[in-house]
Design goal:
alpha/beta; Rossmann fold; nine-stranded mixed β-sheet; 7 helices; 31% helix; 27% strand; globular; ChyE-like; Class_I_gatase-like; GATASE
Length: 241
């Protein structure tokens, strides 16, 4: 196998939401998929004093979910504790949608339900330079689907991107959260909209954003996934030296 990072994908989805298909397609990595929402275990952290290299992963990606990060579910608390350990060791962590919100909550930020459901292809603007944005346009198009949002960033977090709906990306140390879905394709976007328990007019308005132009434009921000993998490889090199 090529020299690629070993990434644990924490699949927090509650049913078949294309998580595994999307990330398997987009990531050039050795991917260990763990259905954390079903209680599947992750590799344990090394005991105190043990070499950091005993942990098998180079990085974590936390997926989207139909749950809310503030729900009282044992598996959510378990994921949060695991992410805390990763952050404490400065391992690279990428949170996508629900994962973005979990990162914010874990680090002391605030996540709240919003009146407006952001759904469909939307525009997002970078507001700070960061390696995660290498070769990503300053203003980009991407798919979003969420009714919860980060309403207060964690202390010492850097806002990386936003739009009229609010926070769209942030960094805190080795962790990056993105509210949108860089991993989606047209098939996934259509399916996720049609599943929503929303008025038909709202769903149709979101479906109307799935144009050839928007689908093509949304290929550019997929680059941030490759940028994250590059960070994971750099982290592995640093910790194996």
């Amino acid at each position: 196998m090529p020299d690629v990072p070993h990434v644990a994908l924490l699949d927090a989805s509650l049913d078949d939401t294309h998580v595994q298909r999307n990330f398997t397609r987009e990531l050039d990595a050795r991917l260990s998929i763990v259905r954390v929402s079903e209680g599947e275990p992750l590799a344990p952290w090394p005991d105190a004093g043990a070499p950091r290299a005993d942990w098998p992963y180079d990085a974590l990606i936390v997926s989207g979910s139909q749950s809310s990060v503030y729900d009282d579910r044992p598996w959510i608390a378990s994921v949060e504790r695991y992410v805390q350990r990763a952050l404490a060791s400065e391992a690279p962590v990428l949170g996508v949608c629900w994962g973005h919100q979990l990162l914010a909550q874990t680090l002391g930020g605030t996540v709240r339900s919003q009146e407006r459901y952001e759904l469909g292809y939307v525009s997002v603007e970078q507001v700070a330079e960061d390696a995660i944005w290498d070769d990503v346009p300053h203003l980009f198009t991407v798919f979003a689907t969420h009714s919860d949002a980060v309403t207060q960033l964690p202390k010492d977090a850097t806002l990386l991107a936003e739009n009229e709906a609010g926070v769209q990306a942030f960094r805190h140390g080795s962790a990056v959260g993105v509210q949108f879905h860089p991993e989606y394709d047209r098939r996934c976007a259509q399916d996720m909209i049609r599943r929503k328990s929303l008025p038909d007019a709202e769903k149709q308005a979101a479906l109307d954003t799935i144009t050839d132009a928007n689908v093509q434009a949304a290929r550019a921000p997929k680059q941030l996934l490759h940028n994250f993998l590059r960070m994971a490889k750099s982290h592995r090199t640093a910790h194996s030296a």
